Amino acid sequence: MILYTSNTIMKTILSIIRLCAAQCVLFILSVILPIMICCPARSFADSVVVFNEIMYHPATNEAALEWIELYNELAIDIDVSNWKLRGAVEYDFPADTIVAGRGFLVVAASPSDLAAVTGCTNALGPFAGQLSNAGEEIRLINNGDRQMNSVNYGDSGDWPVEPDGSGVTLAKIDPDMGNSHGNWSHSLQINGTPGVSNFPSTTKAAKSLVFNEIQATTNTSWWVELKNVGASSLNPSGCVVSVANDPLRKYVITNQSLAVGALLYLSESKLGFRATIDGEPVFLFGPGKTNVLDARRATAVLRGRTPEPDGHWLYPAAGTPGASNSFVFHNDIVINEIMYHQHPQYEPYLESPEGWIELYNKGTNSVDLTGWKLSDAISYKFP
After folding, report:
1. Is the pLDDT at 232 greater than 60, yes or no?
2. I need a labelling partner for 357 at 20 to 30 A (CA). Which of 57, 70, 153, 294 fits?
3. What are phi and psi for residue 289, nearest 5 degrees?
4. DSSP-derived secondary structure for 73-142
5. Distance of alpha carbon 40 from alpha carbon 326, whole angstroms
6. Bridge partners of residue 46, in order along the sequence
7. How far apart are CA 193 and CA 106, in angstroms?
8. Considering the entire predicted model, what is its pTM?
């Protein structure tokens, strides 16, 4: 019989640890290190080149002034030679194309037109195709045909309205974060910021003068209402309200003072125009139209802003021009159960397409859901 003392056991354990450590070191030296030597560091980091700013609907000269900006999230240079853009547009990057560490690379429909308007003189291009004003997917593919980044931008739902024809761009708020709609806003200036940072910080800038209520396009008389949601009084003199950035449908606000929380009602007769198409964008420009303060869509249904701090856009019970918005919330119908990821089939492996949402009426009366909608992650209108 062999007796093991605690000292013997400890020595055995230490020997095993030393052996494992030696094998790990050998593996690193014989396998990992040669790969690192043969492949420069920037080759390992190629997936950190991401979409950062998109001009998909210029205010003028639309076909020539579209452009896309890429951003390198790392502090080291990334070689994107022979990479390509696919999806909405097509472009093949030439040899020796480098995105500097923490730098930007712009690809334009017409580099010369972009330079004339913005002063950005180092854009690549031209790319083939045209970016859809309604949104679509853009993909960045590396020289091994691997997709490195993609963004499926839009102009509806939770995507910002401002870039859709006002002259500002769709701009990422935090360049080191993902491509969901919550991380995209609009540039602070007309024509965007090609080749430089989008924003001075990664926090959304607080707004002061905003749309508060917009009458339905189907109503006999159309109107909009503005609100000062800032922390101090303001003078909106020189600000411009415009439908679809149409030069024939714009109104310059006159000199006046708006106290905190004050409303400014602008009737169709005062504006001299109206929105006529369901979904038309309504823009609020700063003085001189050098920036966009806010934007919303005029729809076939009256829409209004809920009180702070939420400020969500919903459907008021009735139009209240010049007065606080009136909402009647129905909370009897709630989402009760969700099947968002059914177990897959294993032989052969297939993800299940099954998914469903269950609603529950917690009230005592029947509720007619005709015309109600599910939105955001899915889209469904009840018949």
Report:
1. yes
2. 153
3. 55, 40
4. -SSS-EE-TT-EEEESEEEEPPTT-EE-TT-EEEEES-HHHHHHHH-----B-PPEE---TT--EEEEE-
5. 62
6. none
7. 10
8. 0.80
Asked whether the bond before 348 is cis by omega within 30 degrees of 0, the reply is: yes
User: In whole angstroms, how large is the CA radius of gyration of the chain?
Assistant: 28
Q: What pLDDT score does 35 carry?
A: 42
For residue 381, the tally of other CB atoms under 10 A from its CB is: 11
What 3-state class would DSSP assign to 20? Answer: helix
**Which residues pair with residue 297 across a beta bridge?**
281
> pLDDT per residue over 35-76, tens digit each?
444 444 333 334 699 999 999 999 999 889 999 999 999 999
CB 191 within 8 A of CB 117: yes
Identity of the amino acid at 372: W
CB atoms within 10 A of CB 284: 23
Average pLDDT over every residue of 3-14:
50
Query: One-letter amino acid identity for 237?
Result: S
Torsion sign (Cα): 255, 260, 265, 266: positive
* Residue for token pair 């905003």: 210
Instruction: Please say whether the beta carbons of 271 and 251 come within 8 A.
Output: yes
302, 214 Cβ separation under 8 angstroms:
yes
Q: How far is CA 363 from the centre of its chain?
A: 37
d(C-alpha 145, C-alpha 82), whole Å: 10
